[in-house]
Structure formats: structure tokens, C-alpha cells
Amino acid sequence: MSNVTDPAEVRSGGRVIALVPAAGRGERLGEGIPKAFVTLRGVSMLRLAVDGLIESGVVDRVVVIVPADRIDSVRSELPDGVDVVAGGAERTDSVRAGLAAAEDADLLLVHDAARALTPPPLIARVVAELRAGRDAVVPALPVSDTIKTVDLLGAVTGTPERSELRAVQTPQGFTADLLRRAYAAADSLATDDAGLVERIGGRVRTIVGDPLAFKITTPLDLALARALANDEPIEQ
Ligand code: C5P
């Protein structure tokens, strides 16, 4: 457990641990391997995501969560000091495994490996908001498409007002206490961590996200990411 107990001290000097869920199958990417292990310029997305967290200068420890059969190979690919644990069937299970390995956190970031090109300054902005007193912070961007809700047969059931919609990214940042309470109460799956915090009544604050923090999910995303990675030299 952390020695920091004063709430003000948690904000100013508290320990920041980043959890990186990377245990998904990534079938939508169509590369035949889990997407966190697909490479951009010879470097895995997971490694790029971890490097970005370290480069941000605001993260004290990184815990990555990977498929059980990849633990050894991931340990050898990542910098010393990065912890590697086995994930679960759903993203929520994987984050839960990461939480169990991050007992000494005061502030927690959850950052998808699939957002491999996230600029380090965005990560620093999330942590700065936590240190300034927010309990839950998510990067978010306006959506350019009109979004419809549909039923199981594809019939449109509604058109939410676009100006009120945001696409949220990672890293999502939380006080450790709040995120742990949200996961303790979680009785179903969630596609993002802030959603679980909202369910227990937590106030989630958005900050302006970054287009480069897009989630690399489809072959088109991967083509874009590879084009971007080739434009900017990435160390191997
Ligand atoms: O599937 P989705 O794109 O929402 O996955 C987001 C992130 O969560 C990815 O980095 C993926 O590897 C991770 N994940 C996980 N464990 C799972 C499913 C997804 O760590 N069981």
C-alpha cells in the first residue's frame, strides 16, 4: 500500500501507475495475431504504447496485461521495470488483473495498447488534471459522423444530437480509490473504464483528446498508423 494518505498529497506527490490492457484477440484487424503485437515499422503496438507512457515523464510504473502465452516474450521485448501480467476473456477482466498488480497506485491510468501513437503530451495532460483535483479524466473528441441508435434488426430508433456526442480515447485517468470502487461494483462488461465510474455515480471530466490517439482497430486504421509511423522515425 502507498504511504501517501493525505488527499492533497495524493494529488501532488501520489504514485501514478499505468495499466495497459493488451490481451484482446484483435480479430477486426485481420492480421491473424492479437493486435497489440502487430508491428508498425518493426515495433509492436504494445511497445509503442509503453514507450509513449514512459516518455510522458508522468508515469511511475507501467503494468501491461497480455495473453497468458505471451508473458515471457513480452517481458523480453519491454524495458526493464515494466510489469507483465496475464489478462482475461474480456477487457474488463484484463483491467481487473492489472488492478490487482497495482496495489501501490494513488492515481491510475488505463491506456489501450491499440492507441499506439498517442502523443506523450496528451498523457501528461490527463495526469495534470488528476493532480489538479479531478477524480476521473478522459480525452474526448467531437464526432464527425451523425450517430444513430438501432434495434437488433437494424431499424433506426434514434438520432442523438451530434453536438452532445464525444468519442472518448485513452489514457483514462482516475484516483485509484475511485477506479477500484468502480471495478468492485461492476456486475457487467464495459467498453471503457469511465463507464464503470459513471455507474457508481462518479463525475467524469473530459479534456480535449488528440486525433493521433485513435484506436487501431480495422485494416484501414492500420494502414493509416503505418503511414504515420513511416513519416515520423520511430526508434527500434
Ligand atoms: O477490443 P477493444 O478494441 O475494445 O480492445 C481495447 C484494448 O483492450 C486493446 O488494447 C485490447 O488488447 C485490450 N483487451 C484486453 N483483454 C481483452 C480484450 C481487449 O486487454 N480480453
From TrEMBL:
<dbReference type="GO" id="GO:0050518">
    <property type="term" value="F:2-C-methyl-D-erythritol 4-phosphate cytidylyltransferase activity"/>
</dbReference>
<keyword id="KW-0414">Isoprene biosynthesis</keyword>
<comment type="function">
    <text>Catalyzes the formation of 4-diphosphocytidyl-2-C-methyl-D-erythritol from CTP and 2-C-methyl-D-erythritol 4-phosphate (MEP).</text>
</comment>
<dbReference type="InterPro" id="IPR029044">
    <property type="entry name" value="Nucleotide-diphossugar_trans"/>
</dbReference>
<protein>
    <recommendedName>
        <fullName>2-C-methyl-D-erythritol 4-phosphate cytidylyltransferase</fullName>
        <ecNumber>2.7.7.60</ecNumber>
    </recommendedName>
</protein>
<dbReference type="InterPro" id="IPR001228">
    <property type="entry name" value="IspD"/>
</dbReference>
<feature type="site" description="Transition state stabilizer">
    <location>
        <position position="28"/>
    </location>
</feature>
<dbReference type="InterPro" id="IPR050088">
    <property type="entry name" value="IspD/TarI_cytidylyltransf_bact"/>
</dbReference>
<dbReference type="InterPro" id="IPR034683">
    <property type="entry name" value="IspD/TarI"/>
</dbReference>
<dbReference type="Pfam" id="PF01128">
    <property type="entry name" value="IspD"/>
</dbReference>
<comment type="similarity">
    <text>Belongs to the IspD/TarI cytidylyltransferase family. IspD subfamily.</text>
</comment>
<dbReference type="GO" id="GO:0019288">
    <property type="term" value="P:isopentenyl diphosphate biosynthetic process, methylerythritol 4-phosphate pathway"/>
</dbReference>
<keyword id="KW-0548">Nucleotidyltransferase</keyword>
<feature type="site" description="Positions MEP for the nucleophilic attack">
    <location>
        <position position="215"/>
    </location>
</feature>
<feature type="site" description="Transition state stabilizer">
    <location>
        <position position="35"/>
    </location>
</feature>
<comment type="pathway">
    <text>Isoprenoid biosynthesis; isopentenyl diphosphate biosynthesis via DXP pathway; isopentenyl diphosphate from 1-deoxy-D-xylulose 5-phosphate: step 2/6.</text>
</comment>
<keyword id="KW-0808">Transferase</keyword>
<feature type="site" description="Positions MEP for the nucleophilic attack">
    <location>
        <position position="162"/>
    </location>
</feature>
